[in-house]
Amino acid sequence: MRFDELKNHLSGGDLFPCYYVAGEDAYLVKLALERFFALVEIKELNVSVFEGNLSVVDVVNAAETLPAFGSLRVVVAPAKIAKDLGAYLKNPCKSSIIVLVGDAKESKDGGKGVSGIPKEIHTLDCNRLPDNLLSAYVLAKLKKANGVIAPNALGLLIEYCSRYLGRIMLELDKLISFKAGAQITEEDVKLMVAADLEYKVFELSDAVVRRDSARALRILNDMLQEGAGASAKIFGLMYGHFRRLLYTAVSPSDGGLSDKLGVKDYAISVARRQAGGFTKAKLKAILDRLHEADANIKSGRMADKQALTDFIVGACA
User: Fold this and answer.
1) 94: how many CB neighbours lie within 10 A of its CB?
2) Which fold has domain 131-192?
3) 0.85 surpassed by pTM
4) How far is 164 from 27, CA to CA, in rounded Å?
5) What is the CATH number that goes with domain 3-125?
6) Each residue of 181-223: pLDDT tens digit?
């Protein structure tokens, strides 16, 4: 089940005994939990949240406890106990819902294929939403605040925030306050919103396509201002990005690529557009240069900033 289907599902009343809430957008996970909590009367009595080290017996006991002054209980627990719920799910308590929450690493694909998940557990995909749904959230919030945003500014806001809804909502609060009812423009977004590293990698790739080494180096230096650990993160993002471009370039179609690379279809469509600016040989050469830069950094032959700078210069040649 996709996150955008949850509201109608819950209002329909035909609830499942157990859900696996998983996805890369932590804000969507938070919203999903709030929607489950809204189903109960007297949250303080009818919501149980388990964290850290726990016994599946404690979770099952909580689920088998009748709700107080209401018709439903919600029990939240880490997804690591999923494989131990098989016996309970054969005869679940009809007045309780167990909500299992996956961590960032195991929820990359929205819970698909996570080992140990019994088939009775229904997965809720909380990965990043498509642009049309993100736009709808932004416009709904602006309507309540009597705000207006230009279409190009809306698209840039979504891209700057790498399509994470929580970040978009926080940045939108700043923009609404800054503009005080006037239209939010593309320049406002550029002024007020700091682009995520993930978005900057797309900009960097575009500069490499255009052989614009000066622009590429400006983007790289901006990325390096992120602080401790920035170089390693930049390297990982660049390697993942150019690897995706190469896989897209050598694949005759997009079918199945998103599953193979562990990304959404949107990322593949963007990669397809950017890959068109490179030859396959050039993309292979870029990945080879990244391997060389990685070896130079790890062997101590070169400082990380210098290795990344040399990579950019070489990639733009």
Assistant:
1) 10
2) Helicase, Ruva Protein; domain 3 (1.10.8)
3) no
4) 8
5) 3.40.50.300
6) 899 999 999 999 988 888 888 888 889 888 899 999 999 998 8
